[in-house]
Design goal:
The complex is a heterodimer of chains A (about 190) and B (about 130). Chain A has five helices and nine strands; from the N terminus they run E-H-E-H-E-H-E-E-H-E-E-E-E-H. By secondary structure, chain A is α/β, with parallel strands linked by helices. In chain A, strands 4-3-2-5-6-7 form a six-stranded mixed β-sheet, sandwiched between helices. In chain A, strands 1-9-8 form a three-stranded antiparallel β-sheet. In chain A, helix 1 packs across helix 2. Chain B has about 130 residues and is an alpha+beta fold. Helices cover about 35% and strands about 20% of the residues of chain B. Chain B has a four-stranded mixed β-sheet with strand order 1-4-5-6. A two-stranded antiparallel ribbon of chain B has the order 2-3. In chain B, helix 3 packs antiparallel against helix 4. Classes of the chains: A alpha/beta (about 190), B alpha+beta (about 130). The interface between A and B is medium-sized, with 30 and 32 residues.
Chain lengths: ~190, ~130
């Protein structure tokens, strides 16, 4: 992983990070373990991995490369909650799947689950398409904020309720490209002038 | 496009409750606002002298939700009531969302400005009822 940048003066975003919470090395090790588990469990099943944009794409890319069996991949996107979105009504799919999943073994891949609201909506949407099976793989699990319990078969890390960014997780669309997961400095959290 | 069914909104005590209800509506989660009061203590004549009314009930999850924007050092009374409700009503599911959890939830949902308004001053904390 020599090409991946590390926290330090060379990374302009590192100054906004209070503490590295999950290092690049620990992330890669755990993602590798998840990939190997999926490879064993889905041998001969040709599963489809479905990810919810945008935060999942780093995890999905590394997970796919850690899986050693044939798989297919697709992405779905839904409108995220915001002051503007709430005025437009309820959540809706903004990018639907390209592949049919009916009768297929589906693994829904998500970067983080906290309240369970988004995950519940997406899992219900996938279940309505009648896959042969549907399991959930989540990299970061924040149990403290859980409102709706959705069974998770593959889980990377339990996270306490800190506001973390990096490895796909954003704050105002920034910091996704940090190669590690870090806690944002408090003074950055409420700075809306990005 | 599916039209959102407009339902009459209750009068929320605190702005965080309204923000929370809007998030639930957005994701299609059914909720009720303060639907039940749980007696916690009685006097010798059997009159209720202490009670607790959780902010929300999510019927599909069978979950009561209580929100607090109070700083941790000011939540002793609420924590005591929650402990008592779990002792007296062990079959109900209740979850307390604390100040930092709510703030981070709002930030994660892109509501930084609202979060700053709600959590920004100590004065606003005093409007909360326990």
């Amino acid at each position: 992983m020599g090409a991946i940048s590390r926290p330090g003066p060379e990374n302009e975003m590192a100054g906004d990070i209070q503490q590295v919470f999950v290092s690049t090395e620990v992330l890669q090790k755990r993602v590798g373990e998840l990939g190997r588990a999926i490879s064993v469990d889905y041998q001969g099943k040709n599963p489809i991995l479905v990810g919810a944009l945008k935060g999942v794409f780093f995890f999905m890319a590394d997970l796919l490369r850690a899986i050693t069996i044939p798989v297919e991949v697709d992405f779905i996107a839904i409108s995220s909650y915001s002051a503007e979105a709430r005025d437009r009504g309820v959540v809706r799919v903004t990018k639907d799947l390209d592949l049919p999943v009916t009768g297929r073994h589906v693994i829904f891949v998500e970067d983080v689950v906290d309240t369970g609201l988004t995950l519940n909506y997406l899992v219900n949407s996938l279940r309505a398409r009648q896959p042969a099976s549907l399991e959930v793989c989540v990299l970061f699990n924040k149990v403290t904020r859980r409102l709706i319990d959705v069974p998770v078969r593959y889980k990377g890390f339990d996270l306490p309720d800190y506001f973390v960014v990096g490895y796909g997780l954003d704050h105002h669309e920034r910091y996704r490209n940090l190669p590690y997961v870090g806690i944002l400095k408090p003074e950055v959290l409420f700075n809306t002038r990005h | 496009m599916e039209e959102q069914t407009k339902k009459p909104q209750p009068v929320f005590i605190h702005p965080i409750e309204q923000a929370f209800a809007r998030i639930l509506d957005f994701y299609g989660v059914t909720w009720e606002y303060e639907p039940r009061t749980f007696p916690l203590a009685w006097d010798q004549e059997g009159n209720v002298i202490e009670a607790f009314k959780p902010d929300f009930y999510l019927p599909e999850q069978n979950l009561y939700v209580e929100l607090t924007t109070l700083r941790p050092k000011l939540t002793l009374r609420k924590n005591r009531k929650l402990k008592k409700i779990k002792e007296l009503y062990p079959d109900i599911n209740i979850k307390l969302f604390k100040r930092r959890e709510l703030r981070n939830m709002m930030l994660r949902f892109g509501m930084a400005a609202e979060a700053e308004q709600i959590f920004g001053t100590d004065a606003q904390e005093k409007q909360e009822r326990d």
